[in-house]
Amino acid sequence: MPTFITQGRFTAEAMRGLLSHPEDRSKQVEKLFAASGGKLLGYYLTFGDYDFLIVSEGPSEGVATSTIAAAASGEVTDLRTQLALPSSAMVETFTRAGPIAAGFRGPQAEAGKRPHAAH
After folding, report:
1. Looking at per-residue confidence, does 62 or 76 come out higher?
2. CA of 45: how far to CAs of 7, 23, 87, in Å?
3. Mean per-residue pLDDT over the chain, rounded
4. Which residues contact 37 (CB under 8 A, 6 or more apart)?
5. Whether the predicted model's global pTM rises above the 0.85 cut
6. How many CA atoms, within 13 angstroms, populate the side-chain half-sphere of residue 55?
7. What is the edge-to-edge ordering of all strands in the sheet holding 52-57?
8. What does the pLDDT look like over 81-102, one tens digit per residue?
9. How many CB atoms lie within 10 A of CB 91?
10. What is the average per-residue pLDDT within 28-56?
């Protein structure tokens, strides 16, 4: 099953609730993913731009369902989910992408402009 990384922020109300009643949120998050056909692999409190980071696996539609359900709670915001490929999959991914990239024409190529290097 695919692996996903989700980051998000708690609302001010959620932070106040956690301050007055600290709890390990991983059990609730684990139930959320299980209900949508996925599995929680890791749940981390983070410091910086986001308040938490979740590592999960499951079908894309299951992860989307979990994200929608979490957002509907009104206590998390700025949810960002990304597909994560293990490094072992990179060779296959780049091998498959090579011929596709060679045949792809970017928007500036049509206008006769030199495309910028990818970052």
Report:
1. 76
2. 10, 12, 24
3. 89
4. 58, 59, 61, 62, 65
5. no
6. 8
7. 39-45, 52-57, 3-10, 76-84
8. 999 999 889 899 999 999 999 8
9. 9
10. 95
